[in-house]
Amino acid sequence: MSGLLVQTNNSLRENLWRYFFVAIPYIWLLLFFLAPFVIVFKISLADPIIAQPPFTPFFNESSDGGFSIYTTFDNFRYLFQDSLYFVTYLNSVKLAFIATVFTLLIGYPIAYGIARSPQPTRNILLLLVVIPFWISFLLRVYSWMGILKTNGLINGFLLWLGLIDQPLELLYTDTAVYIGMVYSYLPFMILPLYANLVKLDVRLLEAASDLGAKRWQGFLDVTLPLSIPGIIAGCLLVFIPAIGEYVIPSLLGGADTLMIGRVLFDEFFLNRDWPVASAVAIVLLLLLVLPIVYFQKKQAQENLEAAA
Amino acid sequence: MTDSDQKFIEIKGVSKNFGEVIAVDNVDLEIKKGELFSILGASGSGKTTLLRILAGLEVPSQGSVLIDGVDMTTVAPYDRPVNIMFQNYALFPHMSVFENIAYGLKKEGMEKEGIQEKVERMLALVKLEGYENRKPNQLSGGQSQRVALARSLIKEPKVLLLDEPMAALDKKLRQSTQFELMDIHYELGITFVIVTHDQEEAMTLSDRIAIMEQGQFVQIGSPNLIYENPKSKFVADFLGNINLLEATVTEQSDDRIVVKCEALGGELELNNQDQSNTSQMTVALRPEKVMIEKTMPTENEQKFVKGMVEDFGYFGNLSIYRVRTESNHIIQVSKQNRDRVEQSIKWDDEVYLTWENESLMLLGE
């Protein structure tokens, strides 16, 4: 009798431990993702006022002791009415997309080269990819200002070579933003691609070669399709932070480089319009999350169909 | 058969080193057209490297390779009339069975209808009709092996190379697949070169076997020849079970030799096949060529040794005994279990071992 009891106790304790460990990521997401999201969403439904905090409260205590809730969709309506926001969103997507494509075009050969190099060299090369992280992100973007400015390194070098006789307009352009983004996010593209490419079974390429494929055909038929998960992971890791990027466009971009991160910053800190800024943030999040959720669902469905 | 058919594949003085390591060491070999040839060796013997040289996946450090009279030494794999079936099949995981098999034809630039027809015929040959839309991860080991075989046969290569074709299959499946592979070989008449470490597989499948050790061939011949007339202790030991018993030469003439072999009860007179002039030799005797009885042989002149059963293993179709002789040597004996009776010879039984004089082989080193 007592033996049975002990056993139930043990399995109960085991279950509790299991729940505890499963709960950790959920608690983390709840505290640091969902709770802030709810707060931001709540602010986006308020009206701006000049007060501390600068928005109308969600709950209102009426004089007779009851509660009422105040919400408004004015901020969202405003986002759709003022074309500035739509243009900025679109421009952010465009900039992030082009930057992602360039990062992929540069990152893929690098990741491929690292994955194909002998083991000792591989570790050194990977270290070199990661080393820039040890210097502050802000400093690295600042140093690009020094390289790109009118009397900076690039212009100085080109003038010295005699290739140009007028310094080029590089800094404060979209080109500078692309350069900064590709440079900053390259490791996020290289690392997942490397992790994928290093797993590739070399015998598959040998099999392709044996069956009549030249080297480039083997690459297109085998390496490239099998690296698609790595490409997707790398592109998401670059595209998502790039679309909301604030530092790079404000330091390297011109006045006409509209990006949603800058608009968000301006609404918060210059206009002090927290509700509109929150609405901008919510829309940006939906813009990013919905396609990814859709994409993942579709892929899961395809996997299921393939298995059936 | 013409001379070029006799030397359909010609390997001349081929060596391959990887840095300091010599994988293949100055090898010569000729393989006939339509032959089913096996290269048998332990891991690290250089057999796979030699196969990869034939496929063009490695370029030899020295020597040349001719296939059907054409020098192929430095020809790229995609330009050779040769296909290889890899050890773990190396099926393209992102392609269906159909796409895997069709791949070689697609690279040849064949039009769709032709591909469709040929792949269907190939699927029928390897008995995989109805599986064309499956992905490799939805196939069993045996099915994967058939897809790999079909993929490597579809271009109708002059030579098919197979790297450990059965290694990933379980024993029962391996036996049936061996016979299927022989059927396919017979049907298509393509020259097969198989690399394997499994001596049973090599014996059942092959017309000829080459035994490889440390990058060189130690013996080449039909399975029967190699089994019954091994050239060296290594070959004798590698292929099947054998008793290797020490012996000293006491008398030697051109055709007769007398050796003293303690384990077999004293002096033995044998044909002098091996003309080496060492005094220490080895008498080799296959376990299935030794007779085991509980009663003393009565026939005159019959040589025998007396011993005690130290160990025995029952395998159903046969039993294997380890007998310790009076001279304190171990001799292995295998006995067919012809009658459906209980084992009559058991542990610690006193037994008498006899053999035919012709069964004894005299080996040098």
Q: Would you kindly provide a written description of the structure presented here, covering whatever features stand out?
A:
The complex is a heterodimer of chains A (308) and B (365). Chain A has helices at 2-44, 74-81, 83-116, 119-130, 137-148, 153-161, 174-197, 202-210, 215-226, 228-243, 247-252, 260-270, 274-307; strands at residues 59-61, 67-69. Chain A is mostly helical and 308 residues long. Chain A has a domain at 82-272: Orthogonal Bundle (MetI-like fold). The longest helix of chain A has 43 residues, at 2-44. Chain A is globular. The model of chain A has no long low-confidence stretch (mean pLDDT 89). Chain B is α+β, with helices and mostly antiparallel strands and 365 residues long. Chain B has two domains: 3-234, P-loop containing nucleotide triphosphate hydrolases (Rossmann fold), CATH 3.40.50.300; 241-363, OB fold (Dihydrolipoamide Acetyltransferase, E2P), CATH 2.40.50.140. Chain B has helices at residues 3-6, 47-55, 97-108, 112-125, 141-153, 171-188, 199-205, 223-228, 233-238, and strands spanning 9-18, 21-31, 36-41, 62-67, 70-71, 82-85, 159-163, 191-196, 208-213, 216-221, 243-252, 256-261, 266-271, 280-285, 290-293, 304-314, 318-325, 330-336, 350-355, 361-363. In chain B, the strands form four sheets. Chain B has a six-stranded mixed sheet with strand order 6-7-8-3-9-10, sandwiched between helices. In chain B, α3 crosses α4 and α4 (112-125) packs across α5. Classes of the chains: A mainly alpha (308), B alpha+beta (365). Chain A binds chain B through residues 201, 203-204, 206-214, 217, 221-222, 225-226, 306-307, and chain B through 55-57, 76-78, 82-84, 86, 88, 90-94, 103-104, 107-108, 135, 138, 151-152, 155.
